[in-house]
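#lab-general

N.A. 3:47 PM
ok so I finally got the sequence cleaned up, no stray characters, all 276 residues accounted for. can someone with queue access submit it? mine expired

B.Y. 3:52 PM
send it over

N.A. 3:53 PM
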Amino acid sequence: MKLMLIANDPEVAQYAVQSGVDRVFVDLERNGKVERQGHLDTVISSHSFEDAYKVKKSIADAQMLIRLNPFHDNTKDEVERALDAGADILMIPMFYGREEVEQFCAYVNGRCDVIPLVETAQAMVRLDGIAEVEGITEIYFGLNDLHLALKLDFMFEILSGGLVDYMAGIVKLRGLRFGFGGISRFGSGIVSGELVLGEHARLGSESVILSRAFHGNAKNLQELIANVDLEKEIRQLRLLRRKLIERSPEETEKGRLLFKSKVEEFVKSRRDLVRR
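B.Y. 4:20 PM
back already:
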């Protein structure tokens, strides 16, 4: 499983890779993000192309993923700048159909891997055609924006309700890898990282974004080291994933039902709070 950490500090990026992170995620998405997520407790990054240059120099032997803006008039220029910065993977967010992904892949023209980020209702419905686009290397399901698009109360309802199962089935039929959402440290998060990892193992997911719990909101390397033993956390995650993959069908289903019940419990408590 490819573990991704969002970072724009070269020292943090280097330390993350040394600790077992596979991909450093530089987030350049700006357009429309505050409007969509500004009211939520989510991270809205302020990364830059200059950060990307510095990060890549610090992690020469690891992959750098850059998420660009949703498709717009200057997407071609953004693609060129990202490739010049050394991007190994480019991610296109908030698209609505096959045409945007095809044009994005045409701009890339095989010079790096491409991951479409499925996070609109339209993209989910049109996923079968999107997965056929030449140049895609894997697909990622963005649960946060997708749950907003579907007017759900909690992003993990998409997972507990079977929609990720549906999307994963389409992608696997095309022979593509996929990942989804974010994962918290074990023992933390609204739904524990252990249960979320169980769902990744059940579905055959091959990538995940490590949540901010893995860096403790650190602003620099010193704070990160003080807040979290990152190497230990990653080692525990990989060890548990191996065990989860080896579960019996009965154990896997038990884990799915427990995850589903925890999601439903949180949604109910949230609705009860709103009614008060």
